[in-house]
Amino acid sequence: MLNLYRLWAYVVMVNHLHLLLRPKLMGVPKQSSIDSFVPLSSITKRIKGYTAREANRILQRTGKNFWQQESFDHWPRDEDEFFRIIAYIENSPVKAGLVQRPEEWKWSSAAERKRRGWTDIRALT
Q1: Which of 26, 53, 107, 113 is most buried (most C-beta within 10 Å)?
Q2: Partners of 94 in beta bridges
Q3: β-pairing, 5-12 with 17-23?
Q4: Low-confidence ranges of the chain (pLDDT < 50)
Q5: pTM of the predicted model as reported, rounded to 2 decimal places
Q6: Contact 91, 85 (CB under 8 A)
Q7: What's the Cα-to-Cα distance from 16 to each of 8, 19, 31, 60, 97, rounded to whole Å?
Q8: Three-state SS sequence of 9-66
Q9: What is the pLDDT of residue 11?
């Protein structure tokens, strides 16, 4: 998959997932604006396409949709909101009663940071 974004946080739940990513800049714009970034629709299409093919292959399914058409996106307005979103994402398994602490959920950025020995928040990709 092309490197279209920086991944900051994720959690794969039983029936959905959460991602916090930052689209990469396209080329070298003279002035950075929202139009300078890889379109979120392109990123979503590639993530959904790749993961659907892999999941259906593992499940030995063909001809069935894997993802719903809808998605929700939101741009963090400041650094505080950015870190609140990370906490929200990583606490999803705790809130659902699946684990006691975020890093205990194997399919999450909290667990990934622990595996890497990181104690701070930084981009995973």
Answers
A1: 113
A2: none
A3: antiparallel
A4: 1
A5: 0.82
A6: no
A7: 17, 10, 36, 20, 16
A8: EEEECCCCEEEEEEECECCCCCCCCHHHECCHHHHHHHHHHHHHHHHHHHCCCCCCCC
A9: 97
Q: DSSP code of 97?
A: T
CB neighbours of residue 106 within 10 Å:
11
Dig out the tokens for 105 from the structure.
Answer: 């959920």
Q: How many residues does the chain have?
A: 125
Which CA distances in Å does 66 have to 8, 10, 50, 61, 71? 24, 19, 11, 10, 13
Structure tokens at 92: 């999803």
